Amino acid sequence: MIAEPASPGSTAPGRTGSVAIVSDYFLDYVGGAQTSMREQKLALERAGHRVVRVSPVHGPGRRVRRSADGILIRPFFTLPGVRLAVIPNSEKTRRTLRLFFERERVEVVHVQTEFGLAHAAADVAAELGIPVVHTVHTFYWASDDNWNAPLEPFIRWALNKALATTLPRQSITPRPVDNLLRNMVLQFALRADAVISPSAHQARDLEAAGVRAPIAIVPNPITTSPRPPLPLPVGEPPRLLWVARCEGVKRPLIFAAAAVLALARTGNGFSVDFVGDGSQRAALQRLVLGHPQLRVQGSLPHDAVLDLMDAASVVVLSSVGFDNQPMTIAEAVSRERAILYCDPKLREGLLHAGYLADNPDVSGLADAIVDLVERPEKLRELSAGAALDGEQFSGERYVEGALAAFELARSRLRE
Questions:
Q1: Contact, 205 vs 173, CB < 8 A?
Q2: How much is the pTM?
Q3: Could you give the 3-state DSSP secondary structure of residue 408?
Q4: Please, which residues bridge with residue 196 across strands?
Q5: Which domain holds residue 198?
Q6: 357 burial level (CB within 10 Å; 0-12, 13-18, 19+)
Q7: Which among 34, 79, 30, 78 has a CA at the least distance from the CA of 53?
Q8: Are residues 90 and 203 in the same domain?
Q9: Which residue, 384, 339, 336, 373, is CA-closest to 357?
Q10: C-alpha–C-alpha distance, residues 240 and 309, integer Å
Q11: 214 and 277 part of one domain
């Protein structure tokens, strides 16, 4: 059941209790989910609610450590490359969480991943009668190719062991490992008392896959900004900003190839900054050789990314079929910048600020770049539209939606 949008005055966890945000991801890793969790916490705290966090910690040392706002748990090991902490759903983990939830008087367990720590938190919440809310950051797990298909039985066995559960075998997508990971997300959403989806299209897909818990559509918030947005740059060639992980699912090479074509068609009439790291960064650097207008910056601190966003006229999102509701969109509209995108399923934040390419291929993206570069009035129109789209990502709007989801979970638990 997809829930109606929240209305002001929704009920909240008691002021003496707390909301526990639980994540299997390292919170210091730069990613959309981590940024969203940080902004969620700030939004709830500004509204007067107490938030504690449970997440993995790097390096040697004590297995469980106190942090300024919760606890950090040392993983059993970390998967290289993807930097994913492996914390099994074991009795030791559950005992740690049980003591923490009781000490902190946790009233809502807000889980934002689907691996071992998340399952341990949900198991303990069930024991203690605490409602579980599951924010699904992505139902669209996807790999670059199908080389890992023969490993699916082993990966399934390892996940079932680490999660202390049995994952379903629903056919969601053709690639075996991608399908397994999507079933992992589905299985957790099925056990939650309420689900939050930052986008409407993902909510529909979760419902179609069999989720019967109420699904609240609550976009990822942007609650912090170090300064007001700067006016759109004028009197100089437009700058575009591509910011994401340099991985195949984000399609940096496709966009770079489109930019090369568009440079030739516009007489080098624009530039692009590529920000992000990943397995395709080296290939991206090779592709842009000989084009000084295309700059590969690598990973940058958040403040530096905001500087580039303010200097840009357009922020680019080149993924197709992978993203739920990217934090890139929320940040771009908060800086009053246009968004060039090519996935027609994406909606949130794009009604007035978005420019949808005719097709997601190199040719469609190149045409879109040329059109935007040659029509400065369109850039001004989209920038003005971004100011209108930004309201849906406000901290106040997020708190209303989240508190309504918490109450839906509490009500369902009482049934």
A1: no
A2: 0.90
A3: helix
A4: 135, 216
A5: 18-220+394-414
A6: buried
A7: 34
A8: yes
A9: 339
A10: 8
A11: no
- Is residue 267 domain-shared with residue 158, that is, in the same domain? no
Can you tell me the distance from the alpha carbon of 264 to that of 370, in angstroms, rounded to the nearest whole number? 10
Bridge-based pairing state of the strands 64-67 and 70-73:
antiparallel
Residue 294 β-bridge partners: 272
CA dihedral 335, 341, 347, 351 (to 10 degrees): 60
| pLDDT tens digit at each of 415 positions of the chain | 676 555 444 445 555 689 999 999 998 876 789 889 999 999 999 999 999 999 999 888 899 999 999 999 999 989 876 788 999 999 999 999 999 999 999 999 999 999 999 999 999 999 999 999 999 999 999 887 788 899 999 999 999 999 999 999 999 999 999 999 999 999 999 999 999 999 999 999 999 999 999 999 999 999 877 678 889 988 889 999 999 989 899 999 999 999 999 999 999 999 999 999 888 999 999 999 999 999 999 989 888 999 999 999 999 999 999 999 999 999 999 999 999 999 999 999 999 999 999 999 999 999 999 999 999 999 999 999 999 999 899 999 999 999 999 999 999 988 7
Residue 225 belongs to a domain: no
CATH code for position 258: 3.40.50.2000
